[in-house]
Design brief:
This is Large ribosomal subunit protein uL23c. By secondary structure, the chain is α+β, with helices and mostly antiparallel strands. The chain contains three helices and six strands.
């Protein structure tokens, strides 16, 4: 397996998902991210460890279903994404809400 370059690692993680459910998961040291659709669990683990300098315990991924949206008479779909729930070791933390 070829080694993943730094540029590819930066492109795997798109943005953190902040919802009511994911903020409850922060208490269990789990973080949710929207990731590249073709990324596998090993790539996601390497990317999170590289970006945030933490040790990842496990990675769970899912493809939420596409949702339809209607604007007037036009019907479309919301953009599709892949969701990754990353569990960290007990001594590591990611600061998603930095103080201003």
């Amino acid at each position: 397996m070829p080694d993943i370059t730094e540029r590819i690692l930066l492109d795997i993680i798109k943005y953190p998902l902040i919802t009511d459910k994911t903020t409850k998961l922060l208490e269990e040291n789990q973080y949710c991210f929207a990731v590249e659709r073709k990324a596998n669990k090993l790539d996601i683990k390497k990317a999170v460890e590289y970006l945030f300098n933490v040790k990842v315990k496990s990675v769970n991924t899912s493809h939420p279903p596409e949702k339809k949206r209607t604007v007037g008479k036009f019907i479309g779909k919301k953009p599709h994404y892949k969701k990754a729930v990353v569990t960290l070791n007990s001594e590591d933390r990611i600061n998603l809400f930095p103080d201003n």
